[in-house]
Amino acid sequence: MSVTTPPMGWNTWNTFGENINESLIMETCDAMIEKGLRDAGYQYIVIDDCWSERTRDADGKLKADPRKFPHGIKYLSDYVHSKGMKLGIYSCCGPKTCMGYPGSLDREYTDAKFFAENDVDYLKYDWCYHPRNLEGKTLYNRMKMALNATGHDIVFSVCNWGQDGLLEWIRSVGGDLYRSTGDISDNFTSVKNIFHSQIDNLPLSGPNCFNDLDMLVCGMNGVGNVSAGGCSFDEYKTHFSLWCMAQSPLMIGCDVRTLDDEMLELLKNPDLIAINQDRAVRPIVQCKESEDDVFSYAKMLENGDFAFALTNYGDEVRTIRVRFAEIGLALGGEWEFRLRDCDSGEEVGKTFTDGFSAEVGPHCTRVFRGKPVKTI
After folding, report:
1. pLDDT value of position 331
2. Is residue 364 part of a domain?
3. Does 261 qualify as catalytic in the annotation?
4. What is the pLDDT of residues 16-32, one digit of tens each?
5. At 198, which CATH number?
6. What's the half-sphere exposure (Cβ side, CA atoms, 13 Å) at 268?
7. For this structure, is 183 an active site residue?
8. Would the pLDDT of 333 be above 90?
9. Does one domain contain both 271 and 300?
10. 88 and 211 part of one domain
11. Which of 121, 126, 214, 305 is catalytic?
12. Which among 164, 183, 271, 341 is annotated as catalytic?
């Protein structure tokens, strides 16, 4: 399978943790469709940890917990596929998962066959309880080889938190996406710290090997498994905007069944999603920094457009200026920039030659998309 753009979908973990069941998966799938999220590009419904029984069956195979999933995993994959979506599942490279369920160590081929037989499309493969005498590249290569041996297309989501020299070997083991950080929490400090920790690593991200900054907390509002105070709407807007600029996979983590209209509009924003799904996958240029927690980021897109994110991490309204020369755009009077506001989708009324500025509220981000146009 070729994963040319960052995967988009929904994952159970952030809100529900171990409190998952068949009805939740089916209702979420239906809600993704009813609310237009599938049509906006979100494809995957991913069941995270705690889906299996605590022990394997007599033949050493994984088995879905019959209380949570009475009809089994194939029933869910058939249901999700019938709705035009894809099913993901979870395992771990150690003998146990993070929550103490059976892991796949030394059972890689058995488990990969189970996933294929149940028509699973995506595997999130975690790092808990990994044996310290085996390197990460060996453990993840084992599972990728096992997945390949099934002949079934399964996206391989490596979740080792950026440990054990990940960036040196991730491409060689066939990871389609890779978790580069510790777990995200539902607060603005966590969002900010994760994003800034990966700025220098984004040039290594690309098609078939995307840097995963962890799942979205947008819309959790302080409720759920990774709740840690919650965020304001503007903070969630910064979170989503920066994940789109970084071209991180977009895995919604809230309860989509109860999304309000404002948050739904943000998660479906077509201009932001287009930046996230841009096939050039070029890294961000951090083009301005100040002592006041004010930043601007630029990104070249595949058709010659640029995306600009203006982020105010501070506690007061600030005016943020982008200077085109700082990112190599010396327009020299022969070119001008035409901009579109990615919040409203509307063209900005004037053109710009040397740069532009915008007022940005506390903890907020504004994103613009523009094209340099020759004037003479």
Report:
1. 62
2. yes
3. no
4. 999 999 999 999 999 99
5. 3.20.20.70
6. 17
7. yes
8. no
9. no
10. yes
11. 126
12. 183
